[in-house]
TrEMBL record:
Keywords: Aminoacyl-tRNA synthetase, ATP-binding, Ligase, Nucleotide-binding, Protein biosynthesis. One of its GO terms (biological process) is isoleucyl-tRNA aminoacylation. Transmembrane segments: none annotated. This is Isoleucine--tRNA ligase.
Amino acid sequence: PVELGVEKQLGISGKHEIEEYGIEPFIQKCKESVFTYEKQWREFTESIGYWVDMDDPYVTLKNPYIESVWHILGTIHEKGLLYKGHRVSPYCPSCQTSLSSHEVA
């Protein structure tokens, strides 16, 4: 995840050191990190002929995206389609969060 890369960049590790560094500055560094390779991504996207609006990209850290996800979750809940279940997920003990399949090395 982005957070692990930022920890490495800052020379810190784990929740305690992140808190010492400052949560808000750490979050800001993570947000900046997301856009580190934006130029290369634009070039790659164009070179493979992938048609996307790079001036209004799909960015999960922006509030409109986050709000849309909460809206959808609320709608799903209201319709009785949200349920609690169990499944095996990759987990990062350092980040204390589950990982997506593309984050597992």
